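Exam revision sheet. Question 4 asks you to relate a sequence to its structure. Input first:
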Amino acid sequence: MKKLLIKTIIFFCISLHLACDKDFLDLEPLGEYSETNVWKDLNLAETFVNKMYINVFGTPFAAWRLSDYSDESHFVPDWGTGNFNKGLITSDNLYTWPATYATAHLNWNSLYANIRQTNIFFSKIEDIAADDPDFSDRLKGEVYFMRAATYHYLTTLYGGVPIITDVYGLNDDFLLPRNSYEECIDFIVSQLDSAAALLPESYSIDRAGRITKGGALGFKAKVLVYAASDLHNPEKNGAILQGYTNPELLGYTNGSSADRWRLAKNAAKAVIDMQTYSLYAAEPAQGDSIPQTIADYFLMKELTAEDIITIHYTPKTSTGGWVDPVIASNPNGYHGTGNQNPIGDLVDDYEMKDGSKFNWENPVHKANPYLNRDARFYATVLYEGVQWATRPSDALVMDPYSKIQTGYVYSTNGTMIKAGLDTRKGPIEDWNGSYSGYYLRKAVDPTISPTDGKKQDIPFRYMRYAEILLIYAEACNELGEDAEARTFVNMIRRRAGQPDLSGTINGDALRKAIRKERRIELAFEDHRFWDVRRWLIGPEASHQTHGVDIRYTVDRTQVASYRQPDGSTWGTPVYNRIEIPGDLRIWHNKLYFFPIMRDEILKNDLLIQNPGY
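Answer key, structure tokens:
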């Protein structure tokens, strides 16, 4: 696998060399069109719009993912994520954040470059709109959405930012101050309303992935629930903004919190009332394998009634293993790079099947921590002993049963005599083994091997109906409408086979339950990073991370294989919760917002820096 990474890097270097070759500079690249040509043809204008999609959404299926910057996963190679998670970012250094596929689009320069593209579109589209008004209206709707989504990311990262809707030339004075947070949210909502008015409710299969009316309305609900949250509420954010002289840049300074929650509730209800969307497999039949049904859903290439916004990748557009879960997330014993290892703290948050909490202090739980858990645990996490994909040929001879091996066999004298194939001391590859004892299963296709040379071809489900139900429930709870909130959370829990929330759970206890439901239901879907910030739970989510140590003990000095010839284990495993070495997460309140980079401040002295930087 090291060779594969080296080859990928060499390919990038060769590509860069070719891109700089004089002969290549004289040619118009395939798929690229001059600005003059684009604005003569609506089909070329659509190509212009197409490029905005990846600029807005990035590449969530990547070697690095947002989960690695939150309390969901540990990124094995580190490559700067550790320093980021220790709170060491400054206005001069974001470490690997701007360089990774999953987050490269989430920075000031990239986002404003996309804003410029949207502004160019609106400055030109009327020149050819009359050629096909319906077509041009649809494109306008998509770009209204793109502009809104881009400003949403700007505001979640930085707070209020300059709102720019004009295309500035090289000689224009475009140094602008930051707009207030409230002004930005109002602008984003107006753009989404414009988008929803122009977009269709659905597309033909060959246009799957384009933004629909439901996508615009769903995104509006997301924007408004973020805006209503504690991070931007003057009644809740005083401690983190203490001494900052421009609080209007980072949140509301007046108005009613209840009114803001009501806007979020109504926006989510508008999507529900469309009656276009529903939960996939909402009512499991008797005898159904709920974990398998959930796992299969995230591997479906076809869209379902649950899918509101999807990001589509095809093998030909993937870039090596950097954006392919088959390579990036598979265990090292499968020749994967073993990234995005779920941390034990997330695993421990999955309930027992009866709805009770998992607890390492409970001897029954500790003896078999993977028995009778929430079905979503099995659909999300690979753990010791679970059946997984057929191993590659060199590993299959050592493990003909193809079960995950994240433990160790010890002699009674205390000597480790056999390491599992998927550990950091395994015989296949050891440099990329999990520190937590877990690997990611969610949205990783077991029918494709990292050694096949094939790539996964499924969409990333960016927004699902389940998220809308959770937004609605969260807003209802904040408004004191707890019975309504429970009803909609229970819809999601029933789909997972979990019991309903207690009919007496209310207020803060219900708030905690809803937040945990989001953590579990939306794990590894790029939500937790933002939820930690908007809920002001940075200190709670930043701590020493944990994993699991698994040991089998035998009264002998060597064993031929990790398991016995019949596939059984060497006795009863002993599980212990351990600390992941070197992964102490440290929180500073400045991390609730990103810094505006120093070079931007120096270029524009009207920009006011965020607190702590």
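Marking note for examiners. The first strand starts at residue 73 and ends at 74.
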